[in-house]
Design brief:
The protein has helices at residues 94-112, 179-190, 232-242, 301-315, 332-337, 351-363, 403-412, 424-433; strands at residues 13-17, 20-21, 27-31, 34-39, 46-54, 58-68, 138-144, 151-155, 163-165, 203-210, 217-223, 246-253, 265-271, 275-280, 286-291, 322-326, 343-348, 369-373, 391-394, 416-421, 438-446, 456-463. The protein is built from 8 helices and 22 strands. It has 465 residues and is an alpha/beta fold. The chain folds into 3 domains: 13-68, Beta Barrel (OB fold (Dihydrolipoamide Acetyltransferase, E2P)); 103-130 and 300-463, Vaccinia Virus protein VP39 (Rossmann fold); 138-276, OB fold (Dihydrolipoamide Acetyltransferase, E2P). The chain starts with 12 loop residues before the first strand and ends with a strand.
Length: 465
């Protein structure tokens, strides 16, 4: 083991104190003026670690031994922790997780977005999820292997393809326990390989969805478009016989090697076409959402209530406001806020998703919403006769808002932009890009994903005077 005066090299082992937590989950330590990013480390620990990557100003390392424990560490509650590629923070107490997540996103905004650290909400811990276990309403499982070696589970930590067999995940409600194990046993017996298992590979993704308000379960099986569809109906029957709350079984196919858990072509749809989730506003009113197999919906239902209510609080909508809801999905925050504004106009690329949003508005008797399929960055696709927006809500994918869309947003000159993001880095980048016309006024982080490195952010930008 090296000491403080010994230069480090790749493969060497050093002892360091973990000072903080990087976005992504690695612990941060300092050694001889160099920043060390240590995998599986908790702030406050003193650890021995082995250097795995060495650069000029930083190094990456894997933990070898905990020399001194931290008061914020705890025993993980899942047998797969450390091997599974999902959770990274089960070994840290939950209040410490929300503290560090709040600090991470504030530091990212300050460093990348050049935002002053005295903005309202900056530096505050992330708002906690009401549930820390069983909170997910959607889980995507991968297939790997063939026959007795076929596995249904999650990608292993640090691997792009290797799948760890998962009997049950504690982040899903108990009503979904055992689903992956049941599917795995059936698919092993089928003697049909997974998608990547050479010629004739078939099984691709198993998506389990559950509505927390109703308990309804949806299973979406995604396969290759191969000649093995005869194996699906017996699996569907098996699942219906074993799951009393299973309401929907969808079978879709997908081409290509891209590892997405969405179907391109619907082959069959058994049971009900949707399951229904309900979110409650702070004023006690409820909003229902019909969830289709490919629909986007926040993966933490009780966390979504915290997120959306916080959005309304931060945005301070007015009864006279015309609101554009971009990347609107199946209605999401726009439907949640519709009662507070004059009109909500949702725009989304997918025609299927626009139809779903329209159906959700009808389900709730909300009449002040309109939804369009189109590309905001294209004047050709964008309706020309829409009223000018007072507020734009944008909830983009992790890659952030495309540059042409940002340009279009600025040209519309709304008084407010409410930006919801699952990626603090792209949020910071886009806030900086909007900085020539808009000022970040309020900010909040919400922990929608306990025990993982992910966090949701809300930023309110107002037009500069």
């Amino acid at each position: 083991m090296s000491n403080e005066n010994t230069p480090i090299t790749k493969g060497s082992t050093i002892e360091v104190t973990i000072e903080s937590l990087a976005f992504g989950g690695q612990g941060i330590a300092r050694h001889e003026g160099m920043t060390i990013f240590v995998d599986r480390a908790v702030p406050g620990q003193v650890v021995r670690c082995e250097i795995t990557k060495l650069k000029k100003r930083f190094a990456e390392a894997k933990r070898v031994e905990v020399v001194t424990a931290s008061e914020t560490e705890q025993e993980p509650f899942c047998e797969y922790f450390g091997t599974c590629g999902g959770c990274v923070h089960q070994d840290m107490k939950y209040d410490a997780q929300t503290y560090w997540k709040g600090r991470q996103v504030s530091e990212t905004l300050t460093r990348i977005g050049k935002i002053a650290d005295d903005i309202e909400g900056m530096g505050a811990e992330a708002l906690p999820s009401p549930l820390q276990k069983g909170y997910r309403n959607k889980m995507e499982f991968s297939f790997s292997g063939y026959a007795d070696d076929l596995k249904v589970g999650f990608k292993m930590r640090g691997s792009e393809y290797d799948v760890l067999s998962i009997a049950s995940c504690p982040l899903l409600p108990e009503t979904c326990a055992g689903i992956p194990a049941l599917v795995e046993e059936y698919c092993q017996a089928s003697k049909i390989g997974s998608h990547r298992h050479g010629k004739g590979g078939y099984w691709r993704k198993l998506v389990v969805r559950v509505a927390h308000a109703t308990g309804e379960i949806m299973i979406h099986l995604i396969t290759a478009p191969a000649k093995s569809h005869h194996a699906v109906k017996p699996l569907e029957k098996l699942l219906y016989n074993n799951l009393a709350q299973l309401k929907t079984f969808a079978h879709s196919t997908r081409k290509g090697r891209a590892d997405f858990a969405t179907g391109e072509r619907l082959i069959s749809l058994g049971g009900e076409p949707t399951i229904t989730e309900t979110l409650t506003r702070d004023d006690g009113q409820t909003v229902d959402y019909m969830i289709t197999p490919n629909a986007f919906f926040q993966t933490n239902s009780v966390g979504a209530q915290v997120l959306y209510n916080r959005c309304v609080e931060i945005a301070r909508p007015r009864k006279t406001d015309v609101v554009y809801d971009l990347f609107c999905g199946s209605g999401g925050i726009g439907l949640f806020m519709a009662k507070d504004v004059k009109e909500v106009i949702g725009i989304e690329l997918s025609k299927e998703t626009v139809h779903s949003a329209t159906q959700n508005a009808r389900l709730n008797g909300i009449e002040n919403t309109k939804y369009f399929a189109g590309n905001l960055s294209s004047d050709k696709d964008f309706p020309a006769d829409l009223p000018k927006p007072d507020m734009i809500i944008v909830d983009p994918p992790r890659s952030g808002v495309p540059a042409p869309t940002l340009k279009k947003m600025k040209s519309l000159k709304p008084e407010k932009i409410l930006y919801i993001s699952c990626n603090p880095a792209t949020l910071a980048r886009d806030v900086a890009e909007l900085g020539d016309g808009y000022t970040l006024e309020r900010f909040s982080a919400v922990d929608m994903f306990p025990h993982t490195s992910h966090v949701e952010c809300i930023a309110l930008l107002t037009k500069s005077r």
